[in-house]
Amino acid sequence: MIRTIIAAVLAAILASGLMAGAARAETRIEVGRLSCTVDPGIGLVFVSSKDMTCRFLRQGHRTEIYEGTITKVGLDIGITERTQIEWLVFSGSDVRVGPRSLAGSYVGGSGEATIGVGLGSNWLIGGSRRGFALQPFSIQAQTGLNLSLALAGLTLY
């Protein structure tokens, strides 16, 4: 049963990665960096949800603060302390980046492993009019004891 669940989660993550790859095939330009601090939490095997605070940094613009929630559905077991995630933000060449542009919902995949100190990766697409990609395979650093392979959803407001 566990192997079946893990296989299903891996297949879902692979499919999300392929969607992210297809989105990258469009002309995308880097428009800034999203730096997020995720609250500590406990993975409950099939679903977890953690609050976060993010700063959107763009050269020549004021830093924007976003509140948000990251939710994972799949294998997510363990406890993590505060986590830091850094994403490069890309938009389509025809997307206007104005104030609060990153607000909205994002979908993709997530994988992480932590024993004491660990790393993870996340790739998400969405935002206003699905016009933004948060750098596929972003890097995060965290402490705790955790294993996660899951579909991920992020809401920024």
UniProtKB/TrEMBL annotation:
Protein's name in the database: DUF992 domain-containing protein
Top-level taxon of the source organism: Bacteria
Signal peptide positions (record): 1-25
Key words, A-Z: Signal
